[in-house]
Design brief:
This protein is of the alpha/beta class and 628 residues long. The protein is 40% helix and 17% strand. α1 crosses α2, α11 (263-273) packs parallel to α15 (363-374) and α17 packs across α18 (445-453).
Length: 628
């Protein structure tokens, strides 16, 4: 087949020759596809994304996206793309985020118009705050002014309200003129594939524009996937940083999300300088768990040892981290710091702290250049510092071990003794490591405990959405393992509060063939918020419920779901995990867990500061005293 006349060829014809040739460029080179074609805007978007390597679409189609949906049908029938239908836009956005975060597969999600895109935009907060690039394609209001669209915002004095909202959140493009497709794809690729500041790109395609024809679209002018890498920081700044490292010997490296793919560089810098490494909620595994320089997570939900290293250091080396409260305790994490070296490509993040030597550039390249300047360092005082950190780490591990040894505690909700969360999560973490599973932790009590319990030896064995702390993210992310080219077995650990935010995985996961596990830790409340209320006000209000759900019975009403009761002891939980793992599909393990307002037995505790609620005034007073 040959399609060389753009005006007479159909979308089916083009899709067929592209598939036969192995791509758009190959078909044009082979002479089976015209370089200049007449296509609808909807087909043009699919072709543009195809040139950028985007072939997977997560969709909830509606009246706002019928034309786009038909273009997807044509190209899926030809074997060029894959389409996955979902039941909730927030859940879909989480699965799309995880596709790029965990599997590095760029995807596009499609929502209809009005409420659907608003929900998808809300879900996009996870990709925005964690720097994850992907496409959002939304239907939008018609452009001829014939009257208000019924799912539009009824404010006739304003234009383009939906696209203005997404532009504020990240970056967006309202395609009013079909011929501007090329520009939209260029801007989208720059955002989605940005080397250090990626994020979602929102395409707003008015309903009447989607089927509009673009005459003579130059396929080879549609931008390909952008790729770039920065070099090392400037020599002057590297020299200044080396001087600071020689001057100070109580050094902490704050390893943020930007360091996850540069673990070797962080390790070499820590070992050369005698620095302690405090991780962030999203950088677990940057150093092996037992590495002597690994002080583990520091921040609002940080460990005893990680926050000790941050608080007592006189020099802070920030490696790919931004100053979010979960990373630096709402600005109070570095109480004794006298200077900062910040290695970051983002100009705003790199200059957040005072007294900073800013190393603007690629992290690995900058560390390599810095190490070349340092030479041999006097390790005597540096060893003293590291020993003090290791002593605190030993204290923290002993605290954890004591909590792991706690026997089941009586809980009035369950009217019997049940496992505490630290005990339960420790069993889950150990099981996941034994079967090489990825752990997905939802926000709340589960996240607070899990960040300290995980003992990862490499990045991306744990995904905990720490940027937005989006409840429901973990269970929704399971669906990504059914879509990815090279999936890993995933265990999503969620509290009952987080699970009910997005339970659609029970149908979407089965529909798309997930092989994975949900472990639902049930204390019939929003445990983290109940605890926060008790700590701040001494009372608990509207954060618990009285509805006893028979989760095991769900397998009777949802075909394909395997459910298991987790029991009341460690041994019973292990048996349930093994049974769930052996199932070739989606499993759910329901585990009642203990909760107490005191929190001394039911949780590991958090050892950082946080400017929230009635703690704000004290935190702000302390922050005013800080220098950096």
């Amino acid at each position: 087949m040959s399609v060389t006349e753009g005006s007479s060829a159909s979308a089916e014809d083009r899709a067929a020759v592209i598939a036969a040739a192995g791509g758009v460029d190959a078909a044009i080179e082979a002479g089976t596809l015209a370089q200049f074609v007449d296509v609808s805007v909807s087909e043009g978007i699919v072709l543009g994304l195809l040139r950028q390597g985007v072939t997977k679409y997560l969709v909830i189609l509606g009246h706002g996206s019928t034309s786009i949906g038909d273009a997807l049908r044509v190209y899926q029938d030809a074997g060029l793309i894959e389409t996955y239908a979902f039941h909730n836009e927030v859940s879909m956005a989480h699965a799309a985020t995880t596709m790029r975060w965990l599997y590095d597969e760029p995807v596009a999600l499609v929502a209809s118009i009005g409420p659907g895109p608003l929900q998808a935009m809300a879900g996009a907060l996870a990709s925005i705050t964690n720097g994850v690039g992907l496409y959002h394609i939304y239907g939008d209001e018609t452009t001829h002014g014939e009257g208000q669209n019924f799912q539009g915002i009824p404010k006739p004095t304003e234009q383009h309200l939906f696209s203005r909202m997404t532009a504020l959140a990240s970056e967006s493009y309202l395609l009013h003129t079909p011929e501007a497709l090329r520009d939209m794809m260029r801007r989208g690729g720059a955002r989605v594939f940005h080397p250090f500041h990626a994020g979602p790109f929102f395409m707003h395609i008015p309903m009447n524009v989607q089927p509009r024809m673009i005459h003579g679209l130059n396929l080879l002018a549609l931008p390909e996937r952008a790729s770039a890498r920065l070099g090392a920081a400037s020599e002057q700044d590297l020299d200044a940083a080396a001087a600071l490292i020689r001057k100070y010997d109580r050094i902490v490296i704050k390893a943020g999300g930007g360091s996850r793919r540069h673990g070797d560089a962080v390790r070499r810098l820590a070992e050369r300088t005698g620095a302690a490494v405090a991780t962030s909620p999203v950088s677990a595994g940057i150093l092996p768990d037992l590495h002597p320089n690994n002080l583990h997570v520091g921040g609002t939900k940080g460990s005893l040892s990680g926050n000790f290293a941050m608080s007592e250091a006189d020099l802070v080396i920030v490696a790919g981290s931004r100053a979010v409260c979960q990373a630096d305790c709402s600005g109070l994490g570095y109480k004794n710091a006298k200077a900062v070296i910040n290695i970051n490509a983002d100009w705003s993040d790199v200059n957040h702290y005072n007294k900073t030597v800013a190393l603007v550039g690629d992290l690995a390249a900058s560390v390599e250049a810095l190490l070349a300047r340092l030479g041999d360092l006097d390790q005597a005082t540096r060893t003293t510092w590291l020993r003090a950190c290791q002593a605190k780490k030993k204290e923290w591990r002993e605290l954890r071990d004591a909590r792991y040894a706690i026997e089941p505690q009586y809980d009035p909700v369950w009217q019997r003794p049940v496992l505490t969360q630290p005990v339960a999560i420790k069993e889950i973490v150990d099981f996941a490591k034994a079967v090489d599973a990825v752990k997905l932790f939802d926000s709340g009590d589960v996240q607070c405990n899990a960040l300290q319990i995980c003992e990862d030896d490499r990045p991306f064995d744990t995904i905990s959405e720490g940027g937005a702390s989006y409840m429901g993210f973990a269970v929704s992310s399971l669906v990504a393992s059914a879509i990815a080219d090279k999936p890993r077995y995933c265990i999503a650990v969620s509290g009952d509060g987080a699970f009910w935010m997005n339970p659609q995985v029970l149908t979407d996961g089965i529909e798309h063939g997930v092989r994975g596990m949900i472990v639902l830790l049930d204390n019939r409340r929003m445990g983290a918020i109940s605890g926060l209320q008790a700590a701040q006000f001494g009372n608990i209000h509207a954060t618990n419920d009285s509805v006893a759900v028979d989760y095991v019975a769900l397998s009777k009403v949802i075909p394909g779901l395997s459910t298991h009761f987790g029991g009341y002891t460690r041994g019973e939980l292990r048996c349930a995990l093994e049974a769930a793992y052996s199932y070739d599909g989606l499993s759910l393990v329901h585990l009642p867990v203990y909760w107490s307002a005191e929190g001394d037995l039911g949780n590991l505790g958090s050892y950082g500061s946080w400017n929230v609620g009635n703690w704000c005034e004290a935190s702000e007073r302390e922050y005013a005293k800080t220098t950096i």
